[in-house]
Amino acid sequence: MSEGGAPRTVLGVNERSAGIGQVASEDQLAQGRVQLRSDDTWIPDGLGEVSRRAAAEGIVLLKNEGGVLPLAESAPIAVFGRVQVDWFAVGYGSGGDVRPPYSWNLLDALRADPAVQVDEALAARYEEWSAAHAVEAEPEWGTWPRSHPEMPLTEAEIAEVAARSGLAVVVVGRAAGEAREQALEPGSFYLTDDERTLLARVGAAFDRTVVVVDTGNVIDLAWTRDEALDAVVLAWQGGMESGRAVVDVLTGAVPAGGRLTSTIATRYEDYPTHENFGAEEYNEYVEDVYVGYRWFETFAPQTVLYPFGFGLSYTSLDVRDVAVAADGDTVTVTAEVANTGDHDGTEVVQVYVRAPHGLLGRPARHLAGFAKTGRLRPGATERVEVTFDLTDVAAYDDAGVTGHRSAYVLEAGAYEVLVGADVRAAHPVGAVEVPELRVVRTLREVAAPRPEHAFERVVARPGEDGRAVQGVEKVPTATVARRDRVLAGLPEPLERTGDVEIVLADVAAGRATLDAFVAQLDDDELEALTRGDFTMDSPLGEAGNAGALGGTIAALRAKGVAPLTTTDGPAGIRLAVHTALLPCGTALASTWNPDLVRELNALLGAEMAAKGSDVLLAPGMNIQRDPLCGRNFEYFSEDPLVTGVMAAATVDGIQGAGLAACPKHFAANNQETNREHNDSRVSERALREIYLRGFEICVTRAEPRTIMTSYNKVNGVWAHYHHDLVTTVLRDEWGYTGTVMTDWWMRPATDPDFPALTNDAYRVRAQVDVHMPGAWNRDDRHGDGSLLTSLHAADGITLGELQRTARNVLRLVLSSPRLAS
Ligand code: BGC
């Protein structure tokens, strides 16, 4: 983290005098770097400290019998489990592949804390064993270990340690990742026999046993009920500061305050997705809108081990004087939080709505808003306020049962407002009456399942005792003629002017319009804007980049179009140099503190600027539909509001620093198995209320400059060709004007409604602007010609569409600090 070494200043792409037509030299353009840091291990001041704070705030205390935590030990504590050494700081794949300048494991972090002593003899034994059974440094992509074999210890050996120490910490660790689903087997979702034996022996031998679970995904935690285990800390994967963050919470330096953003069920089979997850060809989302707590609270409350929103504190916190006021559709809940216990603490006041059952059927709970207090000392109080719009809890009628097909409606009745510290604890505090059905927004049918893929979905029907009972109904299927919709939206072309020497900086400075700039571009220039510079690790960017876009050819660069470097995300910047490794998405969401997430990402933005990343391929914001999805660690929650709020905070942080964020993967990318071909078959209602909703919140609140489509199909159409999702919903409904890029490499296909459009032409028609990294085969440095072939074919892609996509891409370049006006 040392400051060391002065920044190396290199000319920005368009650092030149004003006046139309003056451009930087090709040398400067090729460099295109601004203020690059030459010292490899530098990270911005404060980034390590804020990462540590965020990792600590996200840690969830699941159990704390007898107040065993925070630690009050003067005697050494005995730390078991080799993960104390071989700590999982993040998950695998593009979302975790960061080279941090340092990384704290738990053992070293405990040793570094003057308030803690560790049993050094035991620690040394683990260090030796771990060294002798070393974890493979760089396994093949997708074959990473989900856990590490545990060091066996006999009862007698454990008893010997227990004789000199009253408190044990046992560490259990897991990881999953991209192309590495969590598996329903010991060593992944389940504990191994060796881990069970270790926990049982330590639990029996020690007075007090604390378990630390270091994972990015929810795993089986039914074993945490064992009475011999006094405390359970769900540490998540907190990045390079993870070890120190865990120690902060164990000692109480940071009061335990994280809250779950996904439900932990008693058994895997209790999740409503368990029979419809992981198939190779397609998955039917039969649970419909009943994802996560929406399922459990409505149909199966008895199967929950730890509810959504749950997390213990070291103190007792009262939420009192709750008041609900409605002003039109704006509902405001106020409350006072009082720390009535003996330790510091924070509370997350969660507001849920129970909508009247109506004809559509509704989940028993719907998170409508939340507020987190600051750190409250014993005896302190804080007032919090949560505001939400009633129309945001409207339901989407995709079947027309209310008489308003393709509309968000509020059915008549009482909308009960519930407040509490988790979804289960929330209790009614008021209600808002809707006297008669209201149509909130009338939209267009989009992306509905195809008739030949019809399936049955779960629906809640009113039961006798007021509880909902589970029913099934046929999912409504598509009725729209896509061809007509596409044709109706085709843009008029700009009349071509040829090169009139307008450079992009002229547009930035208001000396020329974007249309005038675009009207100059020839076919090759337009084509070059629709794809990256073909490969990852583009020579136009810093070593280790994910690809470059924008000024991918000299002719564009001569017009002042800078090449922009993309890098993964989300847990830090993936480049060849050292960069900060941040807490994973789930850890960040578990803070329920969007301000902190924004602060962290603003510092990350500063690091991007210094290290040459223009676009961070983050946040990852797919819904955690099933606990086995390998990339859940990158994602935020099973709930779209938490997802959308955290994604918006991430985007605000990065873009506030002047760089671009790229929320991904749009949409319904909920598993890794065969992810490039898999079809997510899902009702339009569930798409809109669950899988698109987080993106909608993020786009409308934070205006990300780019968005990445997903690999999978959504109801039969690959996301990178999805006109309904990208043009009708994202751009027309939500008003998005930025760049849409593909996930890395595309699948070839011909537009079923327009046979003259294949591959890149099919994609550009949908306004998926940029194919990343650009080639069709990994090592090629060329495209397949499909775009320009179509441009000159009868009924092919039109010039107006190419120019529209050029505008979408150039708006991104215009927003970049590389473009000095
Ligand atoms: C992942 C994306 C990532 C991209 C570039 C893909 O395999 O799905 O999330 O941003 O690679 O590394």
TrEMBL record:
* UniProt-recorded Gene Ontology molecular function terms: hydrolase activity, hydrolyzing O-glycosyl compounds
Keywords, sorted A to Z = Glycosidase, Hydrolase
Q: Is this entry keyworded Hydrolase?
A: yes
Protein name, as recorded: Exo-alpha-(1->6)-L-arabinopyranosidase
Q: Into which EC class is this enzyme placed?
A: hydrolase
Keyword Hydrolase assigned to the entry: answer is: yes
Pfam families, alphabetized: Fn3-like, Glyco_hydro_3, Glyco_hydro_3_C
Some GO term, biological process aspect, for this entry: which one? carbohydrate metabolic process
Fibronectin type III-like domain spans which residues? 347-423
Q: What is its EC number?
A: 3.2.1.-
Q: Write out the similarity annotation.
A: Belongs to the glycosyl hydrolase 3 family.
